[in-house]
# Entry
Amino acid sequence: MNDYAELRAALGDPELAPELLERALTHRSYAYENGGLPTNERLEFLGDSVLGVVVTEQLYVTHPDLSEGRLAKLRAAVVNARALAEVGRAIGLGEHVKLGRGEESTGGRDKASILSDTVEAVIGAVHMSPGGFETSARVVHRLFDPLIEAASAMGAGLDWKTSLQELAAEHTLGVPEYVIEDDGPDHMKTFTAQVRVADRLYGNGNGRSKKEAEQAAAETAYGEIASALGVVDPTTVAVTEAVGEVVAPTDADADA
# Structure
């Protein structure tokens, strides 16, 4: 049985049962071609939950002032098929996946859906090994903390009004127009912003200042328009670029 030394090193050499790692790397196409072997799908199901819990907790702890909605957006930028596939590529996962002949011949080793599913399956395999949640959480932090930091920095510092204006200009949609309303006494005012692009309402936002409300509205509008146009948002781009910081293995790992 292959010991997958390089892959284990990329994961930080966690306690990982060999038979579980083998299963985590077994795509259903290979299993079906080899007499119905167990596939990695159950481990993928488990790993998806472990990944979600660890990333959610990290965001919750590091951003005590963010709303549920903002936390959810940051998590979505990190836990998605594109980001997971990039993590898989960074640790060389594709070369270890067991594929059927059909998937092999059509470039399955670099297919985003296969890589992202296998990343989750490997996390599930670590979780079911003797180290349990503590070890699987450590692996998640090793692989995803650079992505979490990138998403957090981008989400906290992005000028959504400028980004929306650039997106609208690029697609000849005209200049975004904002309408602001305020409510409450002078010392406790809250502001509500609406933004229209090409005479269509795309976003609403609230804040304690006009600027904050406009930024919130612009962020919502950007997401709506980008989704309709098939444009990847800046936070997701930053996250996938941060995968370059996921390295396998470090000098410290080699000396350990």
Remarks:
- Residues 132-157 form the longest helix (26 residues).
- The domain at 160-232 is CATH 3.30.160.20 (Double Stranded RNA Binding Domain).
- DSSP finds 13 helices and three strands in the chain.
- The beta strands are 177-183, 190-197, 200-207.
